[in-house]
């Protein structure tokens, strides 16, 4: 924010700026800080936005050595610093925000894991059903194969008996003749 107080005799321009941490604006509006800095500066040195050269006290105070100006400015700068510096509440809020983001990530991962678990449960149920069907079909096939085996054994036994009966009758009829 550029603010100026022009003195007709000296044509002085006062520039106000603040160097802050990147997330400062989350907790405090920068414009508010600069406005307060400007107002406190003008108040300390008895200036207004449209200051003329008639305010000799302000001109004398502002043209003193740098250390005197620092002494005059130090109280309002300390006030602003203490007001806008990081407080315990802000530190806690920053930590809460960090934990909140971590928790959001953890919750989303947990939800993904739940979805994956549900998919795996569905697949397990499908495989279990397929295994039951396989076992039922295996029992049916086993029973069918056993009955075929029994039928083949009975048919072969019948054929052997018929052939044996034919041979015995043939031998018996030759012996009788």
What this model shows, in words?
The radius of gyration is 51 Å and the shape is rod-shaped. 76% of the residues lie in helices and 0% in strands. It has a domain at 1-85. The protein has five helices and no strands. The protein is mostly helical and 177 residues long. It has helices at residues 24-27, 30-44, 56-62, 66-84, 88-176. The model is unreliable at 1-7 and 51-56 (pLDDT under 50).
Describe the structure concisely.
The protein is mainly alpha-helical and 177 residues long. The chain has helices at residues 24-27, 30-44, 56-62, 66-84, 88-176.
Reconstruct the topology from this structure.
Layout lengths: L23 H4 L2 H15 L11 H7 L3 H19 L3 H89 L1
List low-pLDDT spans.
1-7, 51-56
Query: What is the overall number of helices?
Result: 5
* Biggest sheet layout: none
Tell me the structural class: mainly alpha
- Percent range of helical residues: over 70%
- What's the helix-strand series? HHHHH
Strand content: under 5%
Keywords:
single chain; 177 residues; mainly alpha; disordered N terminus
């Amino acid at each position: 924010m550029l603010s100026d107080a022009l003195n007709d005799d000296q044509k002085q321009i006062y520039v106000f700026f603040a160097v802050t941490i990147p997330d400062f604006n989350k907790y405090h509006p920068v414009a508010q800080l600069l406005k307060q800095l400007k107002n406190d500066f003008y108040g300390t040195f008895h200036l207004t936005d449209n200051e003329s050269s008639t305010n000799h006290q302000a001109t004398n105070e502002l043209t003193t050595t740098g250390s005197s100006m620092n002494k005059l400015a130090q109280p309002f700068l300390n006030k602003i610093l203490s007001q806008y510096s990081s407080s315990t509440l802000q530190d806690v809020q920053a930590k809460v925000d960090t934990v909140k983001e971590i928790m959001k990530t953890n919750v989303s991962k947990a939800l993904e894991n739940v979805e994956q678990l549900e998919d795996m449960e569905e697949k397990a149920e499908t495989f279990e059903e397929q295994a039951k069907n396989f076992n039922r079909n295996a029992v049916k096939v086993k029973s069918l194969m056993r009955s075929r085996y029994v039928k083949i054994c009975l048919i072969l036994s019948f054929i052997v008996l018929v052939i044996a009966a034919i041979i015995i009758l043939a031998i018996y009829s030759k012996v009788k003749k």
